[in-house]
Prior knowledge:
211 residues, four-stranded antiparallel sheet
Amino acid sequence: DGLSKVLYYTLDGEFIREQKVGYRFLRFAFINNTQIAVDLIKTYNEHLQEISNNQLVLSDTAWRILAKGGDYNAEKERELFFSGEVFSRTEDKLFYLRPFTYTVYQVDKEKLLPYCRLDFGKRTLPEDVNFSYTNPRKFAEKYDDYCFLVDNGHFLKDVFYFKYFYFSGGMKVGHLFRSNTTGKVYQGGISNDMDALGFFDVSASIFKENV
């Protein structure tokens, strides 16, 4: 029926077991050895009313729900959504960003602690954004002069790097860098020959060396 399950393997690739989770999700990240943050995005979980209108849950290692967050109206808001990388990690700390919002939270056991907020000024989406549009074009017609975040940032050696989106004759991408030492946010352009083809993201895979 499309419900998620998790497969367990040894580091050598030997199958151990599988476990049915019972609810649909996109991504997950371990908070510690006993708790998991699970990104439900806006998947269909009507069979479990307790999480049918949530985008994030915390579970134990048996995938039993301990806490939930990211309330939304599933009947009105499911038609339009972007599924980004909502989790980010540095050292032993896990961070969460809900798509279309601007505050990054540190996940601390059952709590979400505000870590930083990005301010786009007049181009910050209103609090009462209407997500009932059936396609991005309709959304762009209404919110064509706003910037929004879909993905969480990437922790590099010196900066917390963010990619943001806006509409200007089509979908555009911008880049922000937040200093890990001062907290100052600045904007920069990125020159990338591969970007000219339109579907390559800037690599942020070599975090420690800031490459």
